[in-house]
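Quick illustration, no need to memorize.
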Amino acid sequence: MKNSNRLAVVGVLLLVPATILVSSGLLKIDVPRMLINPVTVLGGLLGALVVNLLAITRVQAERETGGGIEAVVVRIGVRAVNLAVLTICALLIAIVFGYAFVENFQAR
């Protein structure tokens, strides 16, 4: 198993609490309180995002002949598994923050 595939598996494991939170709301089922803790949910989402971004991005600094930085190059690798985890992570973040916004900011 490649390193990027291992990071994708770690990302999937970190997405489990957020997935359980969203699916329990849609299916109207009860889940244990420790799985829907905000630290667990948001920490898992942030962790999955960071881990998979580290797996697919490469950052290089191109230097001038005098030693100064001429350009910073950011390359995004095409690894389908990591991109899929990032897409799911982005969707879950949008759902969680969208729900938080709608629930707390109602028109008067």
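The chain has one domain: 3-104.
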